[in-house]
Amino acid sequence: MKLIAGLVLWCCLVGQAVALNNELASHPSPYLALHGDDPVAWQEWGPEAFAAAQRENKLVYVSVGYFSCHWCHVMQDESYKHPDIAKILNRHFIPVKVDRELQPALDEALMAFVQSTQGRGGWPLNVFLTPEGYPLYAVLYVPPESFAEVIGKIHALWREDPQRIAAVARQHGPNGFADRSADLDAAAVLALGNIFEEMTLGVADTFEGGFGNQSRFPHVPQLDYLLHRYDHTPNAQIREVLETTLDAMAQRGLHDHVGSGFFRYTVDPGWSVPHFEKMLYDNAQLAKLYLNAGRVLGRADYSAVGFAALDFMLTAMQGNNGTMIASLSAIDKLGREGAYYLFDDDALAQALTPDEERVLRAVWSLPDAAAFDYGHLLVNQAPPELAAMQLGWAPDEIERTLASAMGKLRGLRSDRSLPVDDKVLAGWNALAMEAFIAGARQSGEAIYAQTARRIKRYIETVLWDGDQLFRAISGGAALGTVALSDYALTARAMLAFSRWANTPGDAELAHQIVLAAWRDFHRSNGWQRERDPLLKGSELHEVLRDEAMPAGDAVLIEVSLELAREMNLPGLTEMARSALNRFWDELRTEAFFFPSRIRALEVAIGAQKGS
């Protein structure tokens, strides 16, 4: 703390600042409202922040996070509530707090910056920008002493030579692309699919499941495309990768075995140690993936996982208006990461009979010492037959006792409190709508159909005004900045609804949303993630990668091609095909990151049966 005090004294001696006030109190974003009583004078993202930075010749300090993020809460408690650190930020920077769920395009652009400059990413994502809006330097979570040192050094560099620092920042990233159009070639497109398959199988872990050798994320776009390939051309290697990964995600620590639903990711390659936030976009995509996998692979257990994910969303993520909220926090009401989902030994002993606890520990291989600070997480389920042999019980007795114990664990959960982020986001709800359509189509359950209809009704009457889509609405006003991905995913969901419900008017609505997206986000040689980006240096993108969700440009192109075929719109076909005729060399070398674009290319050439 002496270091922080010294930096504060030094910073106070080198300049004066115009006082700012924290603007986030009572903000409709639960995440931003959390920061409303920080001593940091947080501003909202917008042109006013840059006007102040230019007026006072200060760097803009942008801190991006989200409500359910554990390390965002930690950095808030350690640094943003620290009065001395707040003094430095307030005096020498324009501090801006961003909810990444309200500014998805900005978040993606800043994440690309930190990954390109530091080789890693994550949240909280903190970036220093020049007054013009060019990113200069990024820092992820660091302890308060290190953070105070960083902001002190950045301020010193800017104070000594702002012109040189601004010039360095302007060099980050190209802003235009040469016209590299060429005729679509069916053989080249088919080759890309094969390259993707070879590359993906090469990085797949067929022992633990997943891809790579570090943290485990669902990678739904990649799995979805592999499932699509298997559906058209069954292949034993693809099936092995799919089943190994789908089994691991459903059976281990990514999946909540007590209350259902999926966590965002696990920090280990064995899928055992999750970060405990639950996001709508993950659960919606995984529900649909497992339903499709159950159908394509003939695995009823996968379909059951998909239906359970839908039921979880209905129980835990449905808002008052029938739409889906954004997320469930990793942090409980007492500020404890994961505690809502964990059961310590005392809780198990008090809630369960001795026989129930004995069976629970045997079936779930619970160790004597809990693996987490606040108790045990159910991760490794053994077959009941194995537990029966171990305990000398009949298998049906094991199953009855285990069912009773699991019911009591759910009861313990019902007495706990978990904060939620209740924003209704356009693109994420479009994903949920598609998932419930898939559930209704496969099961005939009325509740799934009703939910899909309610989400669709909210989007078309509240989030779409006939000319533009809104990211979210609060108190009748637009909240956040809508992104290309919102338009693309919403158009795709409307087309899916039209096909399922046989409502041509919804296909026309999808068409109108598609046209607005081309108008607002496409340029002759690339794409903007948002209409009027304030962030400089990466406004235009030749193509976009698949991340946790499919790339907005690829989805929009595929939906455009499908609509053009169904509605006989040759002009839309030509526009979509032209946008695909780019980036061939990069696709061949980085195919793993572009499965949605490869799928769009296949639709364009009709290369796959059913395209």
Could you walk me through the main structural features you see in this protein, from its secondary elements to its overall organization?
The chain has 611 residues and is an alpha+beta fold. The protein has four domains: 169 residues, Glutaredoxin; 167 residues, Glycosyltransferase (Alpha/alpha barrel), CATH 1.50.10.10; 80 residues, no CATH class; 140 residues, no CATH class. It is built from 25 helices and 14 strands. A five-stranded mixed β-sheet has the order 1-3-2-4-5, with helices on both faces. The protein has a three-stranded antiparallel β-sheet with strand order 8-9-10. Strand 6 and strand 7 form a beta hairpin. It is globular.
Count of discrete domains: 4
CATH topology of the largest domain: Glutaredoxin
Mean pLDDT: 92
Using the 3D structure, state the CATH architecture of the largest domain: 3-Layer(aba) Sandwich
* Spatial sequence of strands, sheet with the most strands: 1-3-2-4-5
Question: Can you lay out the helices and strands and say which pair or pack?
Answer:
Blueprint lengths: L1 H12 L16 H5 L8 E2 L2 H10 L2 E7 L4 H11 L2 H10 E7 L4 H15 L6 E5 L5 E5 L4 H17 L1 H9 L15 H18 L16 H13 L3 H16 L13 E2 L7 E2 L2 E2 H18 L2 H18 L9 E2 L16 H7 L2 H10 L20 H8 L3 H20 L5 E2 L4 H18 L2 H18 L8 E3 L2 E3 L4 H18 L2 H18 E2 L2 E2 L24 H16 L2 H11 L3 H6 L5 H11 L6
Parallel strand pairs: 1-3, 2-3
Antiparallel strand pairs: 2-4, 4-5, 6-7, 8-9, 9-10, 11-12, 13-14
